[in-house]
Fold each of these.
Amino acid sequence: MKLVCLGFSGGELEDNYWQELDDLADQRVLVASEAELGKNTNADGLLVKLGAKVPKELIDKLPNLKYIGMLGTGYGGIDTAYATSKGITVTNIADYATEGVAEFTFGILIEWCRGVSRALGLAWDGVYEDDHHPGMEIKGKRFGVIGLGNIGMRTAELAQAFGCEVSYWSRTRKPEAETKGIKYQGLDDLLANSDIITLNLALNPETEGIINADRIKKIKTNDTIFINPSPMELIDFKALVTRLKQNDMVFMLDHSDEMTEEQLKELKLIPRCKIYPAIGYTTREAGQLKKRIYVDNLKNYLDGKPSNKVN
Amino acid sequence: MKLVCLGFSGGELEDNYWQELDDLADQRVLVASEAELGKNTNADGLLVKLGAKVPKELIDKLPNLKYIGMLGTGYGGIDTAYATSKGITVTNIADYATEGVAEFTFGILIEWCRGVSRALGLAWDGVYEDDHHPGMEIKGKRFGVIGLGNIGMRTAELAQAFGCEVSYWSRTRKPEAETKGIKYQGLDDLLANSDIITLNLALNPETEGIINADRIKKIKTNDTIFINPSPMELIDFKALVTRLKQNDMVFMLDHSDEMTEEQLKELKLIPRCKIYPAIGYTTREAGQLKKRIYVDNLKNYLDGKPSNKVN
């Protein structure tokens, strides 16, 4: 197999992973961009990074192509339908950041409930007691998880460990979760009845805008905390801003690149909206696991037992 | 019963609790300080706040005294031995802040592991991705709890829920914890073998300075995180500072009033030492529970079934 790593400079993987790829492939070439493909259009395998575009036109340039490996979960830039029609296997990396995102969710939740960063500042200024410091316990709160995939399920488990009353909504019922005491609620009911809500859905045509204007109105007005570590396209942005301006709920997001500068500016002006960078999934452990799976996906494909195939 | 609330201004309890106390006592008097006791030396009951001093001399001034109620856990200012000799019941309030302290422990742990407050600042500055941001997962780490009372046990349970390998040391073995998979280790071994350590001991003559110079040296040098939500007198301060200056471990404390200005200044200069105000136990929920128990302690005493009696 001739492997072309498109958009790679070499620093993306540690030496041991490059070595393993070299052991799997006959030839391995790093190519910075499509324009520099040159004679490498005879590639059998193509490795790409998150955000890469692999449209029909690029696939047509590579007549021998049999495998596309995405170093990430999202593969929206790859024309998978066309790849499928050409018999090309496309793989991605799922479930490498479950712990990272779930732990971060509780980190930013406790940051809000206890004012952790404010407290650091107080102590730095020599203030070691403060009657006005926020202090809400998680225990005993009604915790609603929207979407019970890997991250949603782990979030629900941790919420149970913290002593919350946990509910979920998911397109399909999850009996194994329900036997653990995670109760099913309709989406509208869950929004109306929860003190803390996390949104853990994948973005697709059915889920885009699922948290619509009507549903946003259902979120109760008593300082509900809504945490979104998922794409913002799941939410009707205009309706969200209108609601947040009422100052009767808290909204926190783990922002990746799906929002415009204008939207970010608008959210920044809202006191009870906290914007975090896209760091929920960027732990050392997740980074290593992701690379491990990346190399294993290629190995498994070559062994005839493809893993994380998305088409 | 004539109840004297010494050092109280009236704002310490909500109206409903004052009403309950009035229903329990024949007379209730708020006295700002001992100097203003005046004719109230005929008190049968004395209610005091955290930090109050009730030495032999004050007890001798109140010949009818039968009950002293402390609004807090620590009662070091009360001469309990002398109170006992006079047949006076002393009560305190234990186990009202277990959740608050345990949740705060994980809040400041995730703050360190994920740089939550740094992340808020980055996003505010428009930086939504950062390769240098810290990202350590809690899952899979060796978590050592020193002292398995209420707070230590709850901390250990949460650490297990986060997927840690949890060990404890306590003066007495706790079989019920061991059946849950919380392993016993000698104190020196626990210090040497843990990635994350929490100190959850009460301060008394046997525990004062228990984390001594030899033991501090045993803490492994690979960025161990040591969290102390307990009194700093448990630790040899000089030896701690010497170790922290090596910059090979992290130390976080929830500071109450046991340290000198000089000591605080010294700790502030150490980059991997994070000082928090004493807010681990100051949640709304804990505040309410504490007042509930305070009133109930008096009620139970009057009913002949004293609760939280410490002498």
Amino acid sequence: MDARAPRAAPDLAMIHAAASRLEGEARRTPLLASPFLDEIAGRRVLVKPECLQHTGSFKFRGAWSAVSALDPATRARGVLAYSSGNHAQGIALAAARHRVPSVIVMPSDAPQLKIANTRALGAEVVLYDRATEAREEIGARLAEARGLTLIKPYDEPQVIAGQASVGLEIAEQAAAEGVARADVLVCCGGGGLTSGVALALEGHAPGLRARPVEPEGFDDTARSLASGRIETNAASSGNICDAILTPAPGEITFPVMARLCGPGLAVSEDEARRAMALAFTRLKIVLEPGGAVALAAALFRPEAVQGDAVIAVASGGNVDATTFSEALARFGT
Amino acid sequence: MDARAPRAAPDLAMIHAAASRLEGEARRTPLLASPFLDEIAGRRVLVKPECLQHTGSFKFRGAWSAVSALDPATRARGVLAYSSGNHAQGIALAAARHRVPSVIVMPSDAPQLKIANTRALGAEVVLYDRATEAREEIGARLAEARGLTLIKPYDEPQVIAGQASVGLEIAEQAAAEGVARADVLVCCGGGGLTSGVALALEGHAPGLRARPVEPEGFDDTARSLASGRIETNAASSGNICDAILTPAPGEITFPVMARLCGPGLAVSEDEARRAMALAFTRLKIVLEPGGAVALAAALFRPEAVQGDAVIAVASGGNVDATTFSEALARFGT
């Protein structure tokens, strides 16, 4: 964002302003449930399916919030993102709907389908060679030459404010379902969604507590919450939950999570696959592995969850047919 | 229903009363969309995902409407349905939530999973041998002995009134999307959903026109609409779209459809599979073959559809993993 923008976490006023800008633009996703899932978890399970959001993940919310918050002259020059995944698609669509250019810097070995999809959503894709080039340098050069504004995927106040709209909706929907006290499990990469949801719940549903869920072996946020300082992961790849493999929680997101979240949870790759299969059979939604970890924790970590009900944010559904069918073949009924 | 109940199609007052009883019980499903689907169809495509409804199909709406409409003494004795599919699950859940018994008469060769699911939803499943027994006789005996009320799957005014709530929601949601004139394509078996949607649209969105969509070779409703009298299918099985293979449109549903619907459409099994794969990739929802025929017609019969937008009701998602994965393997990207 521009240099004058605050680098602190968004406050409630900023979150409400983002929600107003998202009205009629982001989809208000329902809360889903199934008695079969309740039985597995031993408590009531409510699922917020952000896979049904535009571009197949919650990322559209933060992207729209950030693009719409730019002053018109800055926005007209265009926006820039580094991403081979869900953030890229969110930025591409948000920019296209604002009729401004977007440039997405992606590694040249990214899946052809992701490159094609990002282009089809209206973005210019600039490929770089991971072995010999740094995306930051390419991005800085492009930004300088064209006056593009970089929109970071999570450590960005307006992005967090946009993701917080998931929490505002949960607060309303949980109240309508008669759920006043529950853990709200959130699939966690850099913590943009988790911290946004935590801030919204603090303001609007103090009986609901956000908790990050990560893949085992990539539980940087859980370890950071436990130690009280930012911890990093040893590896940056090598897990099926590719959408949420980040090196560490963000400088803005971590203090929010440290103040507001309950302890982190971690699940195995097979637990994520099993949750994908159950979401297919019982909820009729498509989840990607990284978007299924919160549901997996809700179902398979009952002893670590508190309350008569648990709410799981199913954060995305951008998964290829082969990965999905493999999960069904192994864990479907 | 009881013998005094009217056998005529529901009027708007009955439809509104059913919608009131469904409030807070049925899920209000969103309208989904994707620019990738718009591009295939050459017009705007809006999808009503009833696969996200309780029990995975729209059938819960009609079941709840019918069970909740019974007088309390009659209802307390319990309800009866013949079905091996979506209607069974809808009735089982609606009865369980009313805390009254339900008996579902199913063929003994029905898939074990469907039998288990129906039981898990609280129903008593009575199996019969298709070769040697008639389900009507078994049902009549049980109804007589226990005072159960038979709830038919589609040719039943309160069931049609419940399915009409899909049309009421579409009328509101289409208006919110700025769509005033469009064809509304509806997956059609016996016509309960199609006639209910048509009645709701007649009352609340006269610029929207319901049109039934069926599998090729099982297009009894399309042929009936063309000839002006009830036509039947030559076969009753042998198509992947099992949920919507009925012998003929109903005595109550057909006159409604004849008065209000545009011409019927039919799609092939492979077109249904291709629509399932596109719904997976672009909407992140799970459709069964019979629940995908309306989307298939919206995408692959553009010349037969009128208007700048088309609305497709995706009526159900109760499909096994093998059938789903085969569709993805053949038509997924």
